[in-house]
Amino acid sequence: MSNCIFCKIIKGEIPGVKIYEDDRILAFLDISQATKGHTLVIPKEHVENVFEVKEDTIAYLFSKVPQLAKAITSAFNAEGLNILNNNGKVAGQSVFHFHVHLIPRYGNEDGYQPVLVNHMNDYTKEDLVKIAEQIKAKL
Ligand code: 5GP
Ligand code: ZN
Known about the structure:
Blueprint: H1 5-11, E1 18-21, E2 25-29, E3 39-43, H2 55-63, H3 65-75, E4 80-84, E5 100-105, H4 125-136
Antiparallel strand pairs: 1-2, 2-3, 3-5, 4-5
Bound molecules: guanosine-5'-monophosphate and zinc ion.
Zinc ion binds next to helix 1.
């Protein structure tokens, strides 16, 4: 897509520091470097988010994630790595070309702090079963 910043990086119209590239995907450094080595993996085909991406495209992209994750982690002796994918503005997506963040982790104060608030006390077992049924009905 002509006004998409990641499509421009793919086409070489704006600079990107690339790690891996083949005919279907590109991995390059995230300009923000939330932590050292923070990488984005994108399909070359422009799709906005997980709701649009084709199954074989995402399957191929994720087939390369373990190798990339191991390379990033071992290059800087990271202790772990978060995989993050934001879909939609409400979910924190700011670039609307599907991308997976690979964020190597060095400790609690390293610059990335995912927070999952525990609401388990708000749901009974029956609530969970009902939630599961509602999702399953949409599969
Ligand atoms: P999102 O918030 O959509 O999940 O992530 C978008 C990411 O793209 C952000 O982490 C941001 O730093 C990164 N980003 C935005 N513009 C550019 C750019 O021009 N070059 C690179 N390498 N990364 C970018
Ligand atoms: Zn794009």
